[in-house]
């Protein structure tokens, strides 16, 4: 049996009629950039997160860039983030001219290790950019304490974690600014690129709104230099429909994860650890295959028609473009071990038991 890593067609089938209706409305209105659909979607996301402000932008990466710009972070500034994340996290820091300070992750949650944040703070540190990897929030409670003591800004990269909770509070309720991505493979995915910044800071939200429109504060008056970072109406209309299903889909992902957890217990497969005070939305279900066998297991799955992927094979301190930061093998052992052992398995909501059994059987066969 073939099982894809992600089956967006299965999800689309469930919402097809509703989505085609809103697409038609947008087409009839011929209002494509920002406008009423984007405003309504911003209100929906703010309400969903329990935060007062939400600003729609062109992608998750642009949401990071706009947030950094809004805080005036640039050349001469340092921003601390995890070396074990999607490239866009640290790429955005470099893109605004600041220096990404890459630190190691925790071996269990794969999220940034808070002790390493404290050790990396210098007089140039302006912000911490924790990532909620694979759907589980980073230790935002501790990170906010550190930030308060050291007067730092916290921008949370929640591209993989919309709706996840940490000590019963949601993504968007801890950090000074929280960033979402609506890339199609995220739990809340559009039909193209899209992103959002949420914050409880009215002034920051206004600045982000200006920055996404070339810094325009009044028509043809530019108080700031921004860019074109706008969200379009088709994405907003589609995402408004999908947002109504998000919690159901995330719950289904958690049920799938529990199913796998049970079947991999007592095997060489190390299942993902989600702390008691966290609830993951499982953007990925990422296991560890120890003993240098990960690549062989991956090859066997591919051969068996089971979708899987390695997120992420190279920690950012070892990326060619970041050579100027001086990272070398051995600097961040937890991230380097994770990069060699992780394997993400199909976890999408529509998976049935037969498909999950096929995934488990193939993994265990390959593990010998
Ligand atoms: C997807 C992702 C992003 C970037 O989002 P885009 O919408 O693709 O630009 C940033 N950070 C993390 C952790 C992501 O997973």
Brief descriptors of the model:
three-stranded antiparallel β-sheet; Aspartate Aminotransferase, domain 1; 40% helix; seven-stranded mixed β-sheet; 12 helices; binds pyridoxal-5'-phosphate; 368 residues
Would you kindly provide a written description of the structure presented here, covering whatever features stand out?
The protein is α/β, with parallel strands linked by helices and 368 residues long. It has two domains: 8-103 and 112-243, 3-Layer(aba) Sandwich (Aspartate Aminotransferase, domain 2), CATH 3.40.640.10; 246-367, Aspartate Aminotransferase, domain 1. 40% of the residues lie in helices and 15% in strands. It has twelve helices and 14 strands. The strands form four sheets. A seven-stranded mixed β-sheet has the order 1-9-8-5-4-2-3, with helices on both faces. It has a three-stranded antiparallel β-sheet with strand order 7-6-12, with no helix packed on it. A two-stranded antiparallel sheet has the order 10-11. A hairpin with a 2-residue loop joins strand 10 and strand 11. The longest helix is centred in the N-terminal third of the chain and has 22 residues, at 8-29. It is globular, with a radius of gyration of 20 Å. Bound molecules: pyridoxal-5'-phosphate (PLP). Pyridoxal-5'-phosphate (PLP) is lined by residues 59-61, 85-86, 88-89, 131, 157, 159-160, 181, 183, 193, 195.
């Amino acid at each position: 049996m073939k099982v894809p890593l992600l089956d967006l067609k299965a999800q689309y089938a469930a919402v097809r009629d509703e989505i085609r209706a809103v697409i038609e409305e947008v087409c009839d209105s011929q209002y494509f950039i920002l406008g009423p659909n984007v405003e309504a979607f911003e209100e929906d996301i703010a309400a969903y997160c329990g935060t007062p402000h939400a600003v729609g932008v062109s992608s998750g990466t642009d949401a990071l860039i706009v947030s950094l710009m809004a805080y005036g972070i640039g050349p001469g500034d340092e921003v601390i983030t995890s070396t074990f994340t999607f490239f866009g996290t640290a790429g955005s820091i470099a893109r605004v001219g600041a220096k990404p300070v890459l630190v190691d992750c925790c071996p269990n949650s794969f999220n940034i290790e808070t002790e390493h944040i404290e050790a990396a703070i210098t007089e140039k540190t302006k912000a911490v950019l924790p990532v909620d990897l694979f759907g589980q929030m980073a230790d935002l409670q501790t990170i906010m304490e550190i930030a308060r003591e050291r007067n730092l800004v916290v921008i949370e990269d929640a591209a993989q974690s919309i709706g996840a909770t940490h000590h019963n509070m949601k993504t968007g309720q801890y950090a000074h600014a929280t960033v979402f991505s609506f890339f199609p493979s995220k739990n809340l995915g559009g039909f193209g690129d899209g992103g959002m910044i949420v914050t409880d800071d009215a002034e920051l939200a206004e600045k982000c709104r200006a920055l996404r429109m070339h810094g325009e504060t009044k028509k043809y008056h530019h108080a700031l230099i921004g860019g074109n970072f706008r969200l379009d109406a088709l994405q907003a209309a589609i995402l408004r429909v999908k947002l109504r299903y998000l919690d159901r889909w995330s719950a289904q992902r958690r049920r799938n994860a529990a199913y796998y957890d049970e079947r991999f217990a007592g095997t060489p497969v190390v299942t993902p650890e989600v702390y008691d005070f966290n609830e993951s939305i499982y953007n990925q279900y990422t296991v560890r295959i120890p003993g240098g066998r990960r690549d062989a297991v991956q090859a066997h799955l591919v051969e068996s028609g089971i979708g899987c992927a390695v997120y992420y094979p190279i920690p950012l301190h070892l990326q060619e473009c970041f050579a100027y930061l001086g990272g070398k093998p051995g600097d961040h052992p937890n991230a380097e071990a994770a990069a060699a052992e992780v394997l993400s398995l199909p976890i999408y909501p529509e998976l049935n038991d037969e498909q999950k059994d096929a995934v488990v059987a193939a993994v265990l066969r390959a593990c010998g």
